[in-house]
Protein backbone atom coordinates (compact mmCIF):
# COMPACT_ATOMS: atom_id res chain seq x y z
CA UNK A 1 0.00 0.00 0.00
CA UNK A 2 1.23 3.48 -0.79
CA UNK A 3 2.15 5.36 2.38
CA UNK A 4 0.40 8.46 1.08
CA UNK A 5 -2.96 6.68 1.16
CA UNK A 6 -2.74 6.12 4.89
CA UNK A 7 -3.59 3.00 6.86
CA UNK A 8 -5.16 2.15 10.19
CA UNK A 9 -2.30 1.77 12.65
CA UNK A 10 -3.88 -1.10 14.60
CA UNK A 11 -6.74 -3.58 14.70
CA UNK A 12 -8.35 -1.53 17.50
CA UNK A 13 -8.11 1.56 15.30
CA UNK A 14 -10.02 -0.11 12.48
CA UNK A 15 -12.61 -1.65 14.80
CA UNK A 16 -13.28 1.73 16.44
CA UNK A 17 -13.50 3.47 13.06
CA UNK A 18 -15.69 0.83 11.41
CA UNK A 19 -17.88 0.46 14.49
CA UNK A 20 -18.06 4.25 14.68
CA UNK A 21 -19.26 4.33 11.08
CA UNK A 22 -21.80 1.64 11.85
CA UNK A 23 -22.87 3.13 15.18
CA UNK A 24 -24.55 6.35 14.20
CA UNK A 25 -28.00 7.85 14.26
CA UNK A 26 -29.09 4.66 12.48
CA UNK A 27 -28.55 2.87 15.80
CA UNK A 28 -29.25 5.49 18.45
CA UNK A 29 -32.26 7.05 16.73
CA UNK A 30 -33.17 4.93 13.72
CA UNK A 31 -33.25 1.51 15.37
CA UNK A 32 -35.44 2.47 18.36
CA UNK A 33 -37.83 4.52 16.21
CA UNK A 34 -38.12 1.71 13.66
CA UNK A 35 -38.74 -0.64 16.57
CA UNK A 36 -41.45 1.65 17.90
CA UNK A 37 -43.23 1.87 14.55
CA UNK A 38 -42.88 -1.82 13.57
CA UNK A 39 -44.28 -3.87 16.41
CA UNK A 40 -41.57 -3.51 19.06
CA UNK A 41 -39.80 -6.80 19.73
CA UNK A 42 -40.98 -8.32 16.44
CA UNK A 43 -38.83 -5.79 14.60
CA UNK A 44 -35.90 -6.44 16.96
CA UNK A 45 -36.06 -10.16 16.19
CA UNK A 46 -36.18 -9.68 12.41
CA UNK A 47 -33.41 -7.07 12.55
CA UNK A 48 -31.09 -9.39 14.48
CA UNK A 49 -31.71 -12.24 12.04
CA UNK A 50 -31.12 -10.07 8.95
CA UNK A 51 -28.06 -8.40 10.47
CA UNK A 52 -26.23 -11.70 10.82
CA UNK A 53 -27.64 -13.62 7.84
CA UNK A 54 -27.55 -10.87 5.18
CA UNK A 55 -25.75 -7.77 6.43
CA UNK A 56 -22.66 -9.53 7.84
CA UNK A 57 -21.91 -11.56 4.65
CA UNK A 58 -22.36 -8.38 2.56
CA UNK A 59 -20.18 -6.48 5.04
CA UNK A 60 -17.42 -9.05 4.58
CA UNK A 61 -17.74 -8.79 0.80
CA UNK A 62 -17.18 -5.02 0.91
CA UNK A 63 -14.21 -5.29 3.29
CA UNK A 64 -12.58 -7.89 1.03
CA UNK A 65 -13.12 -5.78 -2.10
CA UNK A 66 -11.42 -2.84 -0.41
CA UNK A 67 -8.43 -4.67 1.01
CA UNK A 68 -7.83 -6.49 -2.26
CA UNK A 69 -8.09 -3.32 -4.34
CA UNK A 70 -6.20 -1.06 -1.90
CA UNK A 71 -8.06 1.90 -3.39
CA UNK A 72 -11.35 3.79 -3.55
CA UNK A 73 -14.57 1.89 -4.31
CA UNK A 74 -14.52 2.34 -8.10
CA UNK A 75 -10.87 1.42 -8.57
CA UNK A 76 -11.09 -1.55 -6.17
CA UNK A 77 -14.07 -3.01 -8.03
CA UNK A 78 -12.41 -2.46 -11.39
CA UNK A 79 -9.29 -4.32 -10.24
CA UNK A 80 -11.50 -7.41 -9.84
CA UNK A 81 -12.94 -6.99 -13.33
CA UNK A 82 -11.89 -9.18 -16.25
CA UNK A 83 -13.69 -7.59 -19.19
CA UNK A 84 -14.63 -4.12 -20.43
CA UNK A 85 -18.25 -4.80 -19.44
CA UNK A 86 -17.18 -5.75 -15.93
CA UNK A 87 -15.19 -2.52 -15.63
CA UNK A 88 -18.18 -0.41 -16.71
CA UNK A 89 -20.38 -2.32 -14.28
CA UNK A 90 -17.76 -1.79 -11.57
CA UNK A 91 -17.79 1.95 -12.18
CA UNK A 92 -21.59 2.03 -11.99
CA UNK A 93 -21.69 0.11 -8.69
CA UNK A 94 -18.77 1.92 -7.07
CA UNK A 95 -19.84 5.41 -8.14
CA UNK A 96 -23.45 4.71 -7.12
CA UNK A 97 -22.17 3.87 -3.64
CA UNK A 98 -20.27 7.15 -3.52
CA UNK A 99 -23.37 9.11 -4.58
CA UNK A 100 -25.42 7.18 -2.01
CA UNK A 101 -22.96 8.15 0.74
CA UNK A 102 -23.15 11.81 -0.30
CA UNK A 103 -26.97 11.75 -0.30
CA UNK A 104 -27.05 10.14 3.15
CA UNK A 105 -24.65 12.73 4.52
CA UNK A 106 -26.76 15.54 3.03
CA UNK A 107 -29.80 14.63 5.13
CA UNK A 108 -27.80 13.14 7.99
CA UNK A 109 -26.07 16.47 8.57
CA UNK A 110 -29.45 18.17 9.03
CA UNK A 111 -30.60 15.68 11.67
CA UNK A 112 -27.19 15.81 13.37
CA UNK A 113 -27.51 19.59 13.46
CA UNK A 114 -30.79 19.18 15.34
CA UNK A 115 -28.99 16.98 17.86
CA UNK A 116 -26.35 19.67 18.38
CA UNK A 117 -28.99 22.36 18.86
CA UNK A 118 -30.91 20.29 21.41
CA UNK A 119 -27.65 19.54 23.28
CA UNK A 120 -27.03 23.28 23.48
CA UNK A 121 -30.54 24.19 24.68
CA UNK A 122 -30.17 23.05 28.35
CA UNK A 123 -26.82 24.87 28.58
CA UNK A 124 -28.42 28.10 27.31
CA UNK A 125 -31.26 27.72 29.83
CA UNK A 126 -28.76 27.32 32.66
CA UNK A 127 -26.94 30.42 31.37
CA UNK A 128 -30.21 32.35 31.53
CA UNK A 129 -30.59 33.13 27.81
CA UNK A 130 -34.02 31.56 27.45
CA UNK A 131 -34.91 33.32 24.17
CA UNK A 132 -31.85 31.86 22.45
CA UNK A 133 -32.56 28.48 24.06
CA UNK A 134 -36.04 28.52 22.59
CA UNK A 135 -34.72 29.52 19.15
CA UNK A 136 -32.26 26.61 18.93
CA UNK A 137 -35.06 24.06 19.43
CA UNK A 138 -37.61 25.76 17.18
CA UNK A 139 -37.87 24.55 13.58
CA UNK A 140 -36.62 27.30 11.26
CA UNK A 141 -34.54 27.60 8.10
CA UNK A 142 -31.90 29.77 9.80
CA UNK A 143 -31.52 27.34 12.71
CA UNK A 144 -31.26 24.35 10.37
CA UNK A 145 -28.68 25.99 8.08
CA UNK A 146 -26.54 27.18 11.02
CA UNK A 147 -26.33 23.86 12.86
CA UNK A 148 -26.04 21.76 9.71
CA UNK A 149 -23.12 23.99 8.74
CA UNK A 150 -21.50 23.56 12.16
CA UNK A 151 -21.82 19.79 11.97
CA UNK A 152 -20.41 19.67 8.43
CA UNK A 153 -17.49 21.82 9.59
CA UNK A 154 -16.62 19.23 12.29
CA UNK A 155 -16.84 16.42 9.74
CA UNK A 156 -14.63 18.25 7.24
CA UNK A 157 -12.11 19.12 9.99
CA UNK A 158 -11.60 15.44 10.88
CA UNK A 159 -11.44 14.09 7.30
CA UNK A 160 -8.91 16.76 6.23
CA UNK A 161 -6.46 15.19 8.69
CA UNK A 162 -6.42 11.81 6.93
CA UNK A 163 -6.79 8.20 8.06
CA UNK A 164 -4.58 7.77 11.12
CA UNK A 165 -4.59 11.34 12.47
CA UNK A 166 -8.21 12.00 11.53
CA UNK A 167 -10.56 9.02 11.23
CA UNK A 168 -8.74 6.62 13.55
CA UNK A 169 -7.67 9.15 16.18
CA UNK A 170 -11.14 10.66 16.59
CA UNK A 171 -12.93 7.30 16.45
CA UNK A 172 -10.80 6.09 19.36
CA UNK A 173 -11.85 9.17 21.34
CA UNK A 174 -15.51 9.32 20.42
CA UNK A 175 -16.56 5.65 20.62
CA UNK A 176 -15.64 5.12 24.31
CA UNK A 177 -17.44 8.38 25.15
CA UNK A 178 -20.53 7.21 23.26
CA UNK A 179 -20.68 3.81 24.96
CA UNK A 180 -20.10 5.29 28.43
CA UNK A 181 -22.87 7.88 28.10
CA UNK A 182 -25.26 5.29 26.66
CA UNK A 183 -24.72 2.82 29.52
CA UNK A 184 -25.06 5.54 32.18
CA UNK A 185 -28.33 6.77 30.68
CA UNK A 186 -29.73 3.22 30.50
CA UNK A 187 -28.86 2.68 34.16
CA UNK A 188 -30.62 5.90 35.12
CA UNK A 189 -33.78 5.26 33.06
CA UNK A 190 -34.15 1.76 34.55
CA UNK A 191 -34.54 3.33 38.01
CA UNK A 192 -37.65 5.27 36.93
CA UNK A 193 -41.34 4.33 37.08
CA UNK A 194 -42.64 2.78 33.83
CA UNK A 195 -39.28 1.43 32.62
CA UNK A 196 -40.22 -2.21 33.28
CA UNK A 197 -43.34 -1.90 31.09
CA UNK A 198 -41.21 -0.46 28.28
CA UNK A 199 -38.68 -3.27 28.69
CA UNK A 200 -41.47 -5.83 28.27
CA UNK A 201 -42.73 -4.11 25.10
CA UNK A 202 -39.18 -4.09 23.75
CA UNK A 203 -38.33 -7.74 24.45
CA UNK A 204 -41.65 -9.60 23.98
CA UNK A 205 -42.16 -10.15 20.23
CA UNK A 206 -45.47 -10.52 18.40
CA UNK A 207 -44.41 -13.38 16.09
CA UNK A 208 -47.43 -12.84 13.83
CA UNK A 209 -45.87 -9.60 12.54
CA UNK A 210 -42.42 -10.86 11.54
CA UNK A 211 -43.35 -11.44 7.87
CA UNK A 212 -45.09 -8.12 7.31
CA UNK A 213 -43.65 -6.48 4.14
CA UNK A 214 -43.11 -3.07 5.76
CA UNK A 215 -41.40 -4.63 8.74
CA UNK A 216 -39.10 -6.74 6.56
CA UNK A 217 -37.96 -3.90 4.31
CA UNK A 218 -37.53 -1.58 7.29
CA UNK A 219 -35.44 -4.16 9.14
CA UNK A 220 -33.34 -4.89 6.04
CA UNK A 221 -32.79 -1.20 5.37
CA UNK A 222 -31.91 -0.64 9.04
CA UNK A 223 -29.38 -3.50 9.04
CA UNK A 224 -27.66 -2.21 5.91
CA UNK A 225 -27.83 1.45 6.98
CA UNK A 226 -26.40 0.79 10.42
CA UNK A 227 -23.44 -1.14 8.95
CA UNK A 228 -22.84 1.57 6.30
CA UNK A 229 -23.29 -0.97 3.49
CA UNK A 230 -23.90 0.05 -0.10
CA UNK A 231 -22.21 3.42 0.35
CA UNK A 232 -18.59 2.60 -0.61
CA UNK A 233 -17.63 3.32 3.03
CA UNK A 234 -16.63 -0.22 4.00
CA UNK A 235 -14.80 -0.72 0.73
CA UNK A 236 -12.62 2.31 1.40
CA UNK A 237 -12.19 1.38 5.08
CA UNK A 238 -11.24 -2.12 4.00
CA UNK A 239 -8.55 -0.63 1.75
CA UNK A 240 -6.95 0.95 4.83
CA UNK A 241 -6.66 -2.38 6.73
CA UNK A 242 -3.27 -4.05 7.01
CA UNK A 243 -2.84 -7.29 5.07
CA UNK A 244 -1.77 -8.92 8.35
CA UNK A 245 -5.23 -8.59 9.92
CA UNK A 246 -7.79 -11.41 10.11
CA UNK A 247 -10.76 -9.96 8.23
CA UNK A 248 -13.17 -12.73 9.24
CA UNK A 249 -12.64 -12.01 12.94
CA UNK A 250 -12.68 -8.24 12.83
CA UNK A 251 -15.68 -8.22 10.48
CA UNK A 252 -17.62 -10.29 13.01
CA UNK A 253 -16.44 -8.04 15.84
CA UNK A 254 -17.63 -4.88 14.11
CA UNK A 255 -21.02 -6.46 13.30
CA UNK A 256 -21.42 -7.60 16.90
CA UNK A 257 -20.54 -4.15 18.26
CA UNK A 258 -22.95 -2.50 15.86
CA UNK A 259 -25.85 -4.81 16.69
CA UNK A 260 -25.10 -4.62 20.42
CA UNK A 261 -25.18 -0.83 20.49
CA UNK A 262 -28.39 -0.77 18.44
CA UNK A 263 -29.88 -3.16 21.00
CA UNK A 264 -28.60 -0.99 23.87
CA UNK A 265 -30.12 2.09 22.24
CA UNK A 266 -33.46 0.30 22.22
CA UNK A 267 -32.97 -0.50 25.92
CA UNK A 268 -32.65 3.24 26.50
CA UNK A 269 -35.27 4.72 24.17
CA UNK A 270 -38.24 2.31 24.44
CA UNK A 271 -38.26 2.13 28.29
CA UNK A 272 -37.76 5.92 28.34
CA UNK A 273 -40.96 6.29 26.31
CA UNK A 274 -42.93 4.34 28.90
CA UNK A 275 -41.30 6.35 31.67
CA UNK A 276 -42.54 9.44 29.85
CA UNK A 277 -46.04 7.93 29.74
CA UNK A 278 -45.92 7.37 33.50
CA UNK A 279 -45.13 11.09 33.82
CA UNK A 280 -48.19 12.03 31.75
CA UNK A 281 -46.51 12.41 28.33
CA UNK A 282 -48.43 11.00 25.34
CA UNK A 283 -46.39 8.27 23.63
CA UNK A 284 -49.03 6.80 21.31
CA UNK A 285 -50.17 8.35 18.03
CA UNK A 286 -53.85 8.61 17.03
CA UNK A 287 -53.69 5.25 15.23
CA UNK A 288 -52.54 3.52 18.42
CA UNK A 289 -48.89 3.02 17.40
CA UNK A 290 -45.94 4.24 19.42
CA UNK A 291 -44.73 7.69 18.35
CA UNK A 292 -41.53 7.29 16.33
CA UNK A 293 -39.08 9.31 14.24
CA UNK A 294 -38.51 12.99 15.03
CA UNK A 295 -41.65 13.07 17.20
CA UNK A 296 -40.02 10.56 19.55
CA UNK A 297 -36.61 12.18 19.85
CA UNK A 298 -37.62 15.83 19.74
CA UNK A 299 -41.03 15.74 21.48
CA UNK A 300 -41.50 12.71 23.75
CA UNK A 301 -37.99 12.58 25.23
CA UNK A 302 -37.60 16.35 25.83
CA UNK A 303 -41.03 16.26 27.54
CA UNK A 304 -39.68 13.47 29.75
CA UNK A 305 -36.55 15.46 30.56
CA UNK A 306 -38.74 18.42 31.55
CA UNK A 307 -40.46 16.29 34.21
CA UNK A 308 -37.11 15.56 35.88
CA UNK A 309 -36.59 19.08 37.20
CA UNK A 310 -33.05 20.42 37.41
CA UNK A 311 -31.58 16.95 36.86
CA UNK A 312 -33.42 16.76 33.56
CA UNK A 313 -31.20 19.51 32.14
CA UNK A 314 -28.11 17.36 32.66
CA UNK A 315 -29.79 14.20 31.36
CA UNK A 316 -31.00 16.06 28.25
CA UNK A 317 -27.54 17.45 27.61
CA UNK A 318 -25.93 14.01 28.00
CA UNK A 319 -28.51 12.39 25.71
CA UNK A 320 -28.13 14.86 22.86
CA UNK A 321 -24.33 14.89 23.19
CA UNK A 322 -24.59 11.10 22.80
CA UNK A 323 -26.64 11.59 19.64
CA UNK A 324 -24.18 14.14 18.25
CA UNK A 325 -21.19 11.87 18.87
CA UNK A 326 -23.00 8.96 17.20
CA UNK A 327 -23.74 11.14 14.18
CA UNK A 328 -20.14 12.36 13.91
CA UNK A 329 -18.59 8.88 14.01
CA UNK A 330 -20.73 7.99 10.99
CA UNK A 331 -20.50 11.24 9.05
CA UNK A 332 -16.71 11.09 8.85
CA UNK A 333 -16.94 7.71 7.12
CA UNK A 334 -19.58 8.94 4.67
CA UNK A 335 -17.44 11.90 3.64
CA UNK A 336 -14.34 9.72 3.28
CA UNK A 337 -15.91 7.68 0.44
CA UNK A 338 -16.35 10.59 -2.01
CA UNK A 339 -13.09 12.21 -0.87
CA UNK A 340 -11.00 9.08 -1.50
CA UNK A 341 -12.48 8.81 -5.00
CA UNK A 342 -11.61 12.39 -5.93
CA UNK A 343 -8.15 12.22 -4.34
CA UNK A 344 -7.13 8.97 -6.06
CA UNK A 345 -8.94 9.18 -9.40
CA UNK A 346 -8.42 12.86 -10.07
CA UNK A 347 -5.18 13.49 -8.15
CA UNK A 348 -6.64 16.27 -5.99
CA UNK A 349 -4.90 17.12 -2.70
CA UNK A 350 -6.82 15.65 0.28
CA UNK A 351 -7.52 18.87 2.18
CA UNK A 352 -8.75 20.62 -0.95
CA UNK A 353 -10.91 17.67 -2.00
CA UNK A 354 -12.42 17.35 1.49
CA UNK A 355 -13.32 21.01 1.68
CA UNK A 356 -14.86 21.18 -1.81
CA UNK A 357 -16.90 17.98 -1.43
CA UNK A 358 -17.99 18.92 2.09
CA UNK A 359 -19.26 22.29 0.83
CA UNK A 360 -21.07 20.68 -2.12
CA UNK A 361 -22.85 18.24 0.21
CA UNK A 362 -23.72 21.14 2.51
CA UNK A 363 -25.32 22.92 -0.46
CA UNK A 364 -27.44 19.81 -1.12
CA UNK A 365 -28.44 19.95 2.56
CA UNK A 366 -29.56 23.55 2.10
CA UNK A 367 -31.68 22.42 -0.86
CA UNK A 368 -33.33 19.79 1.37
CA UNK A 369 -33.85 22.38 4.13
CA UNK A 370 -35.62 24.70 1.68
CA UNK A 371 -38.39 22.09 1.29
CA UNK A 372 -37.74 19.97 4.36
CA UNK A 373 -41.25 18.59 4.75
CA UNK A 374 -41.00 16.68 1.46
CA UNK A 375 -37.30 16.36 0.65
CA UNK A 376 -35.96 15.01 3.96
CA UNK A 377 -38.07 11.85 3.98
CA UNK A 378 -37.71 11.41 0.20
CA UNK A 379 -33.89 11.53 0.22
CA UNK A 380 -33.66 9.38 3.35
CA UNK A 381 -35.95 6.69 1.93
CA UNK A 382 -34.31 6.74 -1.51
CA UNK A 383 -30.80 6.34 -0.10
CA UNK A 384 -31.29 4.01 2.86
CA UNK A 385 -34.24 1.76 2.03
CA UNK A 386 -33.60 1.39 -1.70
CA UNK A 387 -30.09 2.56 -2.64
CA UNK A 388 -28.08 0.83 0.07
CA UNK A 389 -29.57 -2.70 -0.13
CA UNK A 390 -29.44 -2.70 -3.95
CA UNK A 391 -25.82 -1.50 -4.13
CA UNK A 392 -24.76 -3.93 -1.39
CA UNK A 393 -26.50 -6.70 -3.34
CA UNK A 394 -24.49 -5.80 -6.45
CA UNK A 395 -21.28 -5.92 -4.41
CA UNK A 396 -22.23 -9.48 -3.43
CA UNK A 397 -22.80 -10.24 -7.12
CA UNK A 398 -19.31 -8.92 -7.87
CA UNK A 399 -17.68 -11.09 -5.21
CA UNK A 400 -19.77 -14.15 -6.00
CA UNK A 401 -19.84 -14.08 -9.82
CA UNK A 402 -17.00 -11.90 -11.14
CA UNK A 403 -14.14 -12.19 -8.66
CA UNK A 404 -12.28 -15.50 -9.00
CA UNK A 405 -12.78 -17.82 -6.04
CA UNK A 406 -9.06 -18.57 -5.71
CA UNK A 407 -8.22 -14.84 -5.55
CA UNK A 408 -10.80 -14.39 -2.80
CA UNK A 409 -9.26 -17.26 -0.84
CA UNK A 410 -5.76 -15.86 -1.19
CA UNK A 411 -6.95 -12.47 0.02
CA UNK A 412 -8.69 -13.89 3.09
CA UNK A 413 -5.69 -16.12 3.88
CA UNK A 414 -3.58 -13.01 4.42
CA UNK A 415 -3.89 -12.74 8.17
CA UNK A 416 -5.80 -16.04 8.44
CA UNK A 417 -3.76 -18.99 7.13
CA UNK A 418 -6.24 -21.63 8.28
CA UNK A 419 -9.38 -20.07 6.80
CA UNK A 420 -9.58 -22.66 4.00
CA UNK A 421 -10.66 -25.36 6.48
CA UNK A 422 -12.95 -23.09 8.51
CA UNK A 423 -16.75 -23.06 8.66
CA UNK A 424 -16.68 -19.51 7.28
CA UNK A 425 -15.01 -20.56 4.02
CA UNK A 426 -17.26 -23.61 3.65
CA UNK A 427 -20.39 -21.41 3.80
CA UNK A 428 -19.60 -17.79 2.91
CA UNK A 429 -18.58 -18.03 -0.81
CA UNK A 430 -21.73 -19.81 -2.02
CA UNK A 431 -23.86 -17.95 0.51
CA UNK A 432 -22.65 -14.61 -0.87
CA UNK A 433 -23.04 -15.87 -4.44
CA UNK A 434 -26.56 -17.25 -4.20
CA UNK A 435 -28.33 -16.59 -0.91
CA UNK A 436 -27.48 -12.92 -0.22
CA UNK A 437 -28.40 -11.46 -3.65
CA UNK A 438 -31.53 -13.62 -3.90
CA UNK A 439 -32.74 -12.88 -0.37
CA UNK A 440 -32.12 -9.13 -0.69
CA UNK A 441 -33.92 -9.08 -4.04
CA UNK A 442 -36.89 -11.06 -2.66
CA UNK A 443 -37.29 -8.78 0.37
CA UNK A 444 -36.93 -5.71 -1.83
CA UNK A 445 -39.46 -6.88 -4.44
CA UNK A 446 -41.82 -8.08 -1.71
CA UNK A 447 -41.77 -4.58 -0.22
CA UNK A 448 -42.86 -3.05 -3.52
UniProtKB/TrEMBL annotation:
The chain crosses the membrane at residues 12-32, 44-68, 89-115, 145-163, 175-195, 215-238, 250-275, 312-335, 355-374, 386-403, 423-445. It is found in: Membrane. Keywords: Membrane, Transmembrane, Transmembrane helix, Transport. The keyword Transmembrane applies. InterPro entries: Na/ntran_symport, SNS_sf, YocR/YhdH-like. The keyword Membrane applies. It holds the Pfam family SNF. SUPFAM superfamilies: SNF-like (SSF161070). It is a multi-pass membrane protein. This is Sodium-dependent transporter.
